[in-house]
Design brief:
38% helix, 13% strand, binds 1,3-dihydroxyacetonephosphate
């Protein structure tokens, strides 16, 4: 995960205190946070906020509260990211420079440049200071007809720009009620994850569509079942050993009041947070699940 002009290891390795040598070397190879493949429990969690289409310049004040509360780039045992709208990426990245908060984007075009009015290339996002891009969010899939193939192409474009792809999957309420959840997720994973995915260049986010912005969440047993299925499939799809190191985030109505319970579920390695990431205090309450 890189930011323009910044050594990825310097940017992302924030916990040399807790590193062993192997995990530190993995960081040097571009992993967003450190991970120790020998023990899944040592995958460094990521708590990412997706601001969606929210936030004018004053919203950067919330980011300031966040960076003030979290402090500098060393010592954190949880990676923290905010994905603001495109218009705020550059100033947000500037503001977060030297802090432990990373900046991501919410979408990109698959091409590097060209006649695509209104679109934005991952290279531009990198240039603006983003280190990751969410691709395949259910709101993009639903509102813009994004298919697995398109998400797959976008993920590869994100890598071309040297960034990390946060690939989203999730079933609708209808699919869930029809008992199709695991099948839907399996198909989305097969279609959306490019062959060259590794723990260094991909984060997975499971976001049940019916849980997004509704205040509803699956039971912890349901989350455990889906995340275990995702882990098993990632282990089968990815090159040797990578699948067990990929971070799998849960997203959908994560709040300070339910974060500890959800983050304690096996194979949940962090959260992708919408509404509750807009207020620093709420977001900090979620990050606190890892402290
Ligand atoms: P909420 O946390 O608002 O439910 O949104 C989740 C989400 O879609 C994050 O990408």
């Amino acid at each position: 995960m890189t930011r323009t002009g910044v050594d990825p290891a310097a940017r992302v390795c924030k916990s040399s205190r807790t590193h062993n040598r192997d995990s530190h070397l993995q960081c040097k190879n571009g992993i967003l946070g450190e991970m120790n493949g020998a023990n899944m429990a040592e995958i460094q969690p990521l708590v990412a906020g997706n601001w969606k289409m929210n936030g004018l310049k004053p919203a950067l004040g919330e980011l300031k509260k966040l960076t003030n509360a979290l402090g500098g780039a060393s010592g954190a045992n949880t990676d923290v990211m905010i994905c603001p709208p495109f218009t705020l990426i550059s100033s947000a990245a500037h503001q977060c420079n030297g802090s432990s908060v990373q900046i991501g984007a919410q979408d990109c075009h698959a091409n590097e440049s060209g006649a695509h009015t209104g679109d934005i290339a991952p290279e531009m996002l990198s240039d603006a200071g983003a280190s990751a891009v969410i691709v395949g969010h259910s709101e993009r899939r639903a509102d813009h007809g994004e298919t697995n193939d398109m998400v797959n192409a976008k993920a590869q474009a994100v890598w071309r720009a040297g960034l990390t792809a946060i690939i989203c999957v999730g079933e609708t309420d209808t699919q869930r009620k029809a008992g199709e959840t695991l099948e839907v997720i399996a198909n989305q994973l097969t279609g959306s994850i490019p062959d060259a995915a590794t723990a260094a260049n991909v984060v997975l986010a499971y976001e049940p569509v019916w849980a997004i912005g509704t205040g509803l969440t699956p039971t912890t047993d349901d989350v455990a079942e889906v995340h275990a299925a995702i882990r098993t499939q990632l282990e089968a799809m990815l090159p040797a050993g990578e699948g067990r190191k990929v971070r799998i985030l849960y997203g959908g109505s994560v709040k300070p009041s339910n974060a500890s319970e959800l983050m304690a579920v096996p194979n949940v390695n962090g959260a992708l947070v919408g509404g509750a990431s807009l207020k620093a205090d709420d977001f900090l309450g979620i990050i606190a699940a890892y402290t």
